[in-house]
Amino acid sequence: MKQTKIAVLGAGSWGTALANVAAENGNQIMLWAHRAVTVEEINSRHTNKQYLGDRVLQANIQATTDLKAAVDGAEIVLSVVPTKATREVAKQLNQALVELRQSVIIVAATKGLEPETYKFASQMIEEEVMPQNLTGLAVLAGPSHAEGVIKHDPTTVVAVSKQLSIAKQVQAAMSNATFRVYTNDDVVGAELGGALKNVIAIAAGTLQSLGYDANAKAALFTRGLNEMTQLGRSYGANAMTFMGLAGVGDLFATATSEHSRNFKAGMQFGQGKTMDEVIDNMGMVIEGISTTKVVHDLAQQKGVEMPISEAVYQVLYAQEDPKIAINNLMERPLQQEGK
Ligand SMILES: NC(=O)C1=CN([C@@H]2O[C@H](COP(=O)(O)OP(=O)(O)OC[C@H]3O[C@@H](n4cnc5c(N)ncnc54)[C@H](O)[C@@H]3O)[C@@H](O)[C@H]2O)C=CC1
Ligand SMILES: O=C(CO)COP(=O)(O)O
């Protein structure tokens, strides 16, 4: 296999797990972390205990706090910081690339929308990185909990780019026997799928904590996927993307797994915890919380009915009792399916 120099920006759960996959494939990996203690731990003990417990990482991952050194000579840069840090990190990346006079493929693995602008990670990156420094832009989406990837659970994801050749390069660099990468060209569909499923996963955690069973979960998944798809259509996304890994696949993984931060947050909301308590308890990013607010605004702006996402908004941002929110959903005017 061709060895590629890959830089991974963000050493949380997902950045570390992706760095490990890329390192297993024999690529040369630089992992950029913004905290020196993380760098020291990864380089000396090959662990990142805060996010991935005792899992031992590939010895060929070299961590650094110096972003310019991390990307120097890289062909591919994976951007794996939370949504709220994406624009700032993209600015720093651009500065480094300008100084290095270097152009890279950037892959956004972040799942969320910028609260102020409703932009996706790939759009923020495209706005901040000058065209002469950008060989190509892709998104990595699909059902992939870091905890499963690091222990080699068979995992399927999708590299998505408007340029198929770029998606194929990412596919080639990242695929292995337990991490299978498909390609797709529907960037907006994939990024919407990755962001919107987090809101439905919060609802799934809440249902779980209230003791509801399979009927309620099936209703949530089916109708949740429907409203994700409807918003996707309003963006011109391909409805089939929502039937694939970035849609139903990621919805299933996130809304059924106790590894999911969004699902776990939903359970805590169901137990009556406040937003501050939920965020403090998690200690990791819960993208669905801010995405819920964005989706509330977007649905109004685009005239798309998203009743489940709106119910999550009411529970999170208007302190509505989850049981009342569920009753309200069940008592909406009766409808024909598939409209
Ligand atoms: N954890 C997972 O299994 C998966 C996560 N994702 C997505 O990947 C993105 C990152 O998530 P995780 O790694 O799970 O988050 P995390 O909470 O585990 O780690 C976030 C990392 O970003 C760093 N960070 C925070 N603010 C920063 C800043 N301003 N500049 C630089 N670094 C900063 C933190 O120090 C930490 O290392 C999210 O959008 C998430 O939805 C996608 C697929 C799987
Ligand atoms: O996107 C993910 C899995 O595909 C991770 O979801 P959580 O952020 O809810 O853990």
TrEMBL record:
Listed InterPro entries: 6-PGluconate_DH-like_C_sf, 6PGD_dom2, G3P_DH_NAD-dep, G3P_DH_NAD-dep_C, G3P_DH_NAD-dep_N, NAD(P)-bd_dom_sf
Positions that bind NADPH: S13, W14, H34, R35, Y51, K111, A146, R261, V285, E287
Lineage: Bacteria, Bacillati, Bacillota, Bacilli, Lactobacillales
Binding site residues for substrate: K111, R261, N262
Cellular location(s): Cytoplasm
Binding site for sn-glycerol 3-phosphate: K111, G142, S144, K197, D250, S260, R261, N262
Active site per UniProt: K197 (proton acceptor)
Taxonomic superkingdom: Bacteria
Record-listed E.C. numbers: 1.1.1.94
Glycerol-3-phosphate dehydrogenase NAD-dependent N-terminal domain span: 5-165
GO cellular component: cytosol
Residue stretches spanning the membrane: none
A GO MF term: NAD binding
Predominant place of localization: cytoplasm
Domain Glycerol-3-phosphate dehydrogenase NAD-dependent C-terminal as annotated: residue spans: 186-326
Reaction equations catalysed: sn-glycerol 3-phosphate + NAD(+) = dihydroxyacetone phosphate + NADH + H(+); sn-glycerol 3-phosphate + NADP(+) = dihydroxyacetone phosphate + NADPH + H(+)
Gene from which the chain derives: gpsA
Function comment: Catalyzes the reduction of the glycolytic intermediate dihydroxyacetone phosphate (DHAP) to sn-glycerol 3-phosphate (G3P), the key precursor for phospholipid synthesis.
Family: Belongs to the NAD-dependent glycerol-3-phosphate dehydrogenase family.
UniProt KW keywords: Cytoplasm, Lipid biosynthesis, Lipid metabolism, NAD, NADP, Nucleotide-binding, Oxidoreductase, Phospholipid biosynthesis, Phospholipid metabolism
Keyword Chloroplast: no
Annotated metabolic or biological route of this protein: Membrane lipid metabolism; glycerophospholipid metabolism
Protein name as annotated: Glycerol-3-phosphate dehydrogenase [NAD(P)+]
Residues reported in the UniProt entry to bind NAD(+): G10, A11, G12, S13, W14, G15, A146, R261
PANTHER family: GLYCEROL-3-PHOSPHATE DEHYDROGENASE, GLYCEROL-3-PHOSPHATE DEHYDROGENASE [NAD(+)] 2, CHLOROPLASTIC
GO biological process, one term: phospholipid biosynthetic process
